[in-house]
Amino acid sequence: MQSTTEMVVNTDSLKHHSKQCSPTVNRWSVAEIAALYELPFNDLLHQAQTVHRANFDPNGVQVSTLLSIKTGGCSEDCGYCPQAARYHTDVENEPMMAIDDVLAAAKEAKDNGASRFCMGAAWRSPKQRDLEPVLKMIAEVKAMGLETCATLGMLKDGQAAQLKEAGLDYYNHNLDTAPEFYGDVITTRTYQDRLDTLDSVREADINVCCGGIIGMGESRNQRAGLLAQLANMERPPESVPINLLTQVEGTPLHGTEELDPFEFVRTIAIARITMPKSFVRLSAGRQSMHEGIQALCFLAGANSIFYGEKLLTTGNPEAETDKKLFAKLGLHPI
Ligand code: SAM
Ligand code: DTB
Ligand code: SF4
Question: Is the CB of 124 under 6 A from ligand 3?
Fold first, then answer.
């Protein structure tokens, strides 16, 4: 198996497998990642913690706050998502938030210690008339001294450049799962569409935030397949959100067999080992996660969280609960 110290990027092995570029580098095979999943838990965590300490302050955690600036009514069919118009969930189609309300939420996030503010919209792709107000929000949030992040769906030519110009630091766009499981979850856009958007984000020199969801009924090999896609990007994402599926009634994935929590911790550890320089975010799913499991995730190399009572439409731990957890574990926000 490839050890982290042997992880030399072999530029001769650059593979151009998409119609644009999306170059990948053969850092990790799916088989090598699958072998990491088979390690005894303690050996895996030791390896992950060793990689973590070699690359990061072991007790520092990056803190982002998320806000849904446009909720519900989405045309897509992502099987996990309560915001898809076609599923009968409690989420209503709402208009875009007013800029003043967004800025008030950003100020509150900053006052509570967040360093990054992520704005999410339930769109397949932003229309130009929708993008204009978002550009204003980004510029104003940036002017408040926060890092900015947006997740607005697929980007068309020129949109990433406009976001960069407005002051966007990160764009979140997830691969969600392995290519071979993807079609079981989403049919209204392809894996390649996602890779193309990620390419345009990179080309515009915006940091990439890209990860996926675990616990959708995928196999262990498919979890390894997702991590291989991320780790083998020419430049791995700066930020890798690992979401545990939040099951929402009315979505097709509601009722999926619950994932063993240790499998989630293993996934975090392997993300850390395969992407040693990336921030790995313990993302959706913390509300239902015992604090002992969250502590194991931090030990496994997670060093970023969403902070604040709400994700987009579902719950997240109370800010006070997270403050207490940080104090108990001796973690500090960065
Ligand atoms: N509409 C845009 C898009 O899909 O790119 C941006 C918002 S979308 C909600 C952002 C990401 O949230 C999805 O790609 C998915 O990874 C994650 N997500 C959505 N619903 C989730 C759920 N129920 N559990 C875990 N993660 C979820
Ligand atoms: C990401 O990877 N997770 C966040 C963020 N990027 C946009 C979203 C999680 C959404 C969980 C379901 C909800 O609250 O609607
Ligand atoms: Fe729409 Fe994004 Fe939800 Fe998919 S994940 S249904 S694109 S809001």
Answer: yes
Q: How far apart are CA 268 and CA 245, in angstroms?
A: 14
Q: Which residues of 69-96 are buried (b: 16+ CB within 10 A; e: fewer)?
A: bbbbebebbbbbbbbbeebebebeeeee
From 81, 194, 202, 210, active-site residue: 81
Closest listed ligand to the CA of 77: 3
pLDDT of residue 1: 40
Query: Cβ–Cβ contacts within 10 Å for residue 161, how many?
Result: 15
User: Catalytic annotation on 21?
Assistant: no
DSSP code string of 238-295: SEEEEEEP---TTSTTTTPPPPPHHHHHHHHHHHHHHSTTSEEEE-TTGGGS-HHHHH
Reduced to 3 states, what is the DSSP secondary structure of residue 29?
A: coil
User: What is residue 197's predicted lDDT score, i.e. its pLDDT?
Assistant: 98
Whole-number Å distance, alpha carbon 150 to ligand 3 midpoint, is 14
**pLDDT value, residue 62:** 98
Can you give the pLDDT at residue 334? 93
CA 312 remoteness from chain centre: 13
Ligand 3 pocket check for 189: Cβ under 6 Å? no
Residues of the chain with pLDDT under 50: 1-20
Sequential DSSP letters for 171-204: EE---BS-HHHHHHH--SS-HHHHHHHHHHHHHT
Establish whether residue 248 lines the binding site of ligand 1, counting it when its CB lies within 6 angstroms of any ligand atom: yes
For this structure, is 118 an active site residue? yes
Query: Can you tell me the distance from the alpha carbon of 171 to that of 288, in angstroms, rounded to the nearest whole number?
Result: 27
153 lines ligand 3 (CB under 6 A): yes
Q: Is 201 in the pocket of ligand 1 (CB under 6 A)?
A: no
pLDDT, tens digit (0-9, with 9 covering 90-100), for 156-197: 999 999 999 999 999 999 999 999 999 999 999 999 999 999
Residue written as tokens 């050890």? 3
Mutation probe of ligand 3 site: the residue of 68, 69, 75, 76 with most atoms within 8 A of C-beta: 76
281 is catalytic: yes
